[in-house]
Structure formats: structure tokens, C-alpha cells
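Run folding on both entries below.
>entry_1
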Amino acid sequence: MEAKMTFSSMRTALVLGATGGIGGVMAEALLARGWHVRAMVRDPIKAADRWRDRPARPEWIIGDAMVEADVVRAAEGAGTIIHAVNPLAYRGWGRLVLPMIDNSIAAAARAGSRIMLPGTIYNFDPASQTLLHEDMLQHPTTKKGAIRVALERRLEQASARGVSSLIVRSGDYFGPRAGQGWFNQLLVQPGRPVRRIIHPGAAGIGHGWAYLPDLAEAVVRLIEAEERLRSFERVHFAGHWDADGHAIADAVKRVVGRPDIPVHRFPWWLTGLAAPFSETMREMREIRRFWRSPMRLDNSRMVALLGAEPHTPLDIAIRDTLAGMGCLDEIVAPGRAYPSTSIG
């Protein structure tokens, strides 16, 4: 039986994946807006250590997202479940992703929660679908895309049984705590001054990026607009659109004050050589086509719901990202003061 929502439960969220990039930033945004946040982790001591430098911390609950009873117990009394768990380095997607969403659906059905799922563009065909609307037909061309379609289909089917959900699709993540991602693991090397940039895209091809603090702010504001959301809601986060494949690299050069930093293209051919021996390389190779075609997210529904999308100017977002990664000698250049976030 669905639990009755109270004011307390409506302001309580369970975050699955709080030690990762998107889940951690979502938890921070919720805490900053006064929510009570629970975070289910297998090792609370290790999780607490990762959070030791943050101003507010969630309530740690021991559990495994692969165990339905654990998720049901952790979600009791929560109005929202942030389903931000992802297998590390793409390993085990086929075995793990769908059982985990099924467990979150079971927990949401018991608690009366709305599930929030961070979405991607992998549901679509990069060769034929370049401007992506929220409810357009999905044509996955990869195994990862097919799994993404199945995830969303499970949530849509659950909405007919009274389980509400919110899917927020976005481009590739970047930010001070983005975790595993193209920017934070490939474009620049964490913990070192920027000496070179390795870019997976092609010159002249547009690509979408999501600055995680903006995305998290948008998600929390959407969750707080519960009365305006449909039972099964899809929303697109436009983020930063790199129209020609140069904008992100150029912003890095401006922020570090080094216009001469070389930009190297990612050697995709290496993923082909390593694919027979590495699941991660096989999954990465599938993604190549999303860097060869411009796929832009239409955020009309986001704007209709919120009035405007949270948006930090690109150079400020890059500056904060590099500072958080330990790649800047000085966080703010002499004589300049940046606000941490600008909402437009």
C-alpha cells in the first residue's frame, strides 16, 4: 500500500549513488535547500571520508542497491528517490542496471515516492536525431542506449501503477565533483596544471555539456514543483552547447591563461584494439558515434516548468571545475572575483 505523504516526507530524499558524481552533487543541492537527505551506501565509513570537506552531510544508511529489501527500508518515509547509481567505468551494465531500477520502483511503490532518474542522449540515434525533444520516439543504436530505453519504459509502466517519476536528460557532465566523466577524466588530468587537452570530439561538430551544480539545482527545483509535474515526466537540461567543438577547450585555455595549450584528439582507434580484452573499452567504443554527430537537447519543458534553466557562465563553470580538480595554481586570478553560480 502506498504510504501517505506528509510535509516531512515530502522534504526527505533518499539518494542512491551519493558517493558518485551526479548523486553526490544532487545530495549537496538538496541539503543546501533544507532537505533531509539519506544516502544508502555499502561502506558508510568510506563514504563519510569522501564527504569530510563538505559543509553538510547526509544520513548514511548501510545497504546495497542490488538488494530490494535494502532499498525499501532506506526509502521508508522519503518523498523522493534519486536513482543515481551507475556501475563504475561502464562495467556490468547489462547485469546490474535494470535490477537496480526495479528495486527503486518497488521501494517507491511502498513509500509513495517519486523516482528521479538522470537521463542521457544514448536513447537516440545520433545519425538521424539531432534536436532532441522530451517525448520524441527513441531509436537506440547501442547496447547502452537500449538499456536506457528499457529503464525509461520501466518507469513509464510503473506510473500506470501509481509510481511517479522524473527523468532529466542532459549532456556530458563536468564540475568540481563530477567523478567519472569525459571532462574530469580525459580532457584534463586531475591534480595537475593543465599542459594539454585531449578532446574526444571532432572539430566543427557540436556537443552538449551539463555543469553539475546547475543540473542539480534544476532537479531540486523541479522536485519542489511537484504539483506541476506529470506522473511520468521527462525534462531536458540544455546546459552548455559547444557549437563547433572548440568552446570547451577554448574556455579552459582562457581560464588558465594559456592560449598555447595544445589540443589533441582522443585516439579512438585504441578502443578498438583494447575492446576484445576490456568491457570498459567496448562500452567506450560504442559511444564514439555520439561525438561524431551534433545532438542538442531542447529544454522547452524545463523552461515551461521553471521559467528559466539554471545556468552558470561557461568560464566560471570551467574555473570552478578546474579548481575543484586541483588543476589551478590560483583559484581566482588577481583583481577578479567570480560568483560561484549565476542563475539565468
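>entry_2
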Amino acid sequence: MLCTSSFQAIHIPYATKKQLAVHVKRIASLVPDLYVADVDIALSELCKDDQKLEQILLGREFHISLGRTVPIQVHQIDSIVAMLREKLQSQRGYWIEFNKWDVFVNDDLTRTFLSLEVTGGGLQQISRQIQIVDEVYRLHGLPEFYKNPRPHISLVWALGDISDTLKTAVSDLGRSQNRPQKHIFMCKFSGIECKIGKKSFNICRDRGQ
């Protein structure tokens, strides 16, 4: 079985969707054969219809990973969930700022992702949550997260390692913007869930909700 720990329901604000759609279309014009993350639809097809592009690419829920996707034993499930709840139950609300376009490649170099990274507000809180998940994983003999976590959400992907090509396109996008932005968009922390197989376990909610 697989276990992933992630934020619940990060929604991109409506006012931001049109702006992001324009940027993604610009990227698509520079880099061929891109696909929408999770739904695996060709980006070139969506770019023909702005409404579909916004709806399918940006209208879904996004999640920030707090732990690796790892195989776990059935008998470990209750212990992992209980320990995560105990250690994460006191989480308070905070704002998450997505400040930077960046490129990530998976461990086996089979896919490259265009993502929005958290480098400002919320980074400290997310990093602490990753440390807590690591503690729980370690106690259950599971692999910890990457040494230098870079919290992000992925929008599109391509086959193989095309990181250089995508980074060039991102740089071109940055040069085309009239002025630097403090952040691309913001959303509020809502809670944490742990997905194991087909089940989702609520770990905590923002106490302000």
C-alpha cells in the first residue's frame, strides 16, 4: 500500500487563474508535448480553449507533499495515522505564498514538472510539518523526505528529463513580465490529510475553521 501526506484542498484564487493560464500558454508555445499534471491531458489541446484551460488545469484541488510516497505494511496504518494526528493536531492557520516558477525532475528521470514553489510565507511552517512527518516515518522504518525540501504544486509535466528546456522557458517568462511580483498567488492552510491506498485520513484542520 502507498502512503502520502499532503495538504488538503489548495485552491487557486479565481482572479489568479486567468493570469496563470496566460503564463502556461506562453510556456506551451515554447515547449512541445506538455501534459496537465494528474489528469494527463495534452496542454496543446487545452490551449485552444481558454475556458477549458482554466477549468481543467487550474480548477482542481492541489496538494503540497509533506512526505514521500512509500509502500507501508497494513499493520502500520493505525500507528502511523494516530502518531501523525497526535503530533500535528495543534496546527494553526497561516498563509502560503507561491513565489516562484521552477522545474523538478522525478527520481528516475522519467518526468519533468513545471511547478509553483513556496519560497516566502508559509515555508517555515511547511518545513516544520515535513520534519514531523519524517519523525513518524523514521519510527516506522520508512524513508524520509528529501534533505532540502522545496514545497510546491505541479501544474504540467513532460516525458523524460527536459529540465534545461523548461528552465529556459521559465526564464523567458520572467523576462516578459513587466515587473517582479512579491508572490504569484496566496492561499490559506486548511489542514493535512494522509492518503493510504484508496483511503484518506483526516490528520488535522486549521483550528480557526
